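[Archive record]
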Amino acid sequence: MITEFTPLASLAGGVLIGLAAVMLMAFNGRIAGMTAMLGGVLEPHQPDSRWRLAFLGGAIAAPLIATLLGARFAFASPTTGVLLAIGGVIVGVGVTYGSGCTSGHGVCGMARPSPRSVVATATFMAATFVTVTLIRHGFGG
């Protein structure tokens, strides 16, 4: 499986993610950690659930709108849906024990040089490297 190299689209996506994180911090004083946002929406009677819903809604609506406007997103996975679901559960457990996800630690925490975020992001990247290596060259194919 060859991954297509898309530097301009990747740069644009990174700029938009960074801009959204900066705007959320500037206007709400909050870190753009998607897991914490989702957790705050799922907990009943949270006073700040409206902005959380708006941010998450935008993250879901943007690719849907882009698709309606003709954008095409290529996605291929060498694994089965069951393995993807198991991976999702493992990630969910990991972000719970790691006190955050890649957006909270990798984007926002690294920008504030948080030592905890530096360690968490290094751990995410190492685990990603091992996982991709195993899936592409080990038992996955």
User: Anything to note?
Assistant: The mean pLDDT is 83. The two ends are 9 Å apart (CA to CA). Residues 7-137 form one domain.
